[in-house]
Amino acid sequence: MHTDAVRALSDWTVADDRQERLRLDYLDHLADRPDGLWRACLPAHITASAVVVDPSAGRVLLTLHPKVGRWLQMGGHCEPGDTTLAAAALREATEESGIAGLELLGVDGRPVPVKLDRHQVRCAGKDRPENTHLDVQYVAVAPAGAEALISEESLDLRWFAYDALPEPTDPSVRDLVTLARELTA
């Protein structure tokens, strides 16, 4: 999986200078840390996520995250059974949304990231120090009219119109939804 993560980030053409700096930071992290994809890698590790959209209905599926208390895209930690970053993002999106048949946006049949986001979290527990998630974000397209099924990982799970995102929603999630909307229009 480490090789795939390096390939995915190396091959990805970024949108702007900020994303390019993050991409290079993520690659440096992976070069320095063979364990850089796993939750046990501290103080930072790679995570994978996907914003689930239904372009035919102009809507996005968000989860109210129990630890963060905000509406977020689906995502989380890479697991040993994941063979690629894209597979980790798709697994997380499918588990957390309950929707079968999600497809990640890609180029030439290969899923590609659309955005990177570095943020502080307390994923090791509330009594442990914060660490950094180096999130690699994808867009997952749901079948038209898909119905979501809440998982134990969510306080709430709902579809929202692109222009009617709930509060509190992180600005990085709003940017990701805008990008997904543009890419699937």
Question: Structural class of the helices, strands and pairings?
Answer: alpha+beta
CATH class: Alpha Beta
The named CATH superfamily: Nucleoside Triphosphate Pyrophosphohydrolase
Describe the global form.
globular
Mean pLDDT: 94
The biggest beta sheet reads: 8 strands, mixed
Helix proportion: 25-40%
CATH architecture: Alpha-Beta Complex
As a percent range, the share of strand residues is: 25-35%
Number of domains: 1
Calculate the terminal CA-CA distance, rounded to whole Å: 31 Å
Domain Nudix hydrolase: 43-182
Protein name: NUDIX hydrolase
Organism: Kitasatospora camelliae
Cofactor: Mg(2+)
Short description:
With 185 residues, the chain is an alpha+beta fold. It has four helices and ten strands.
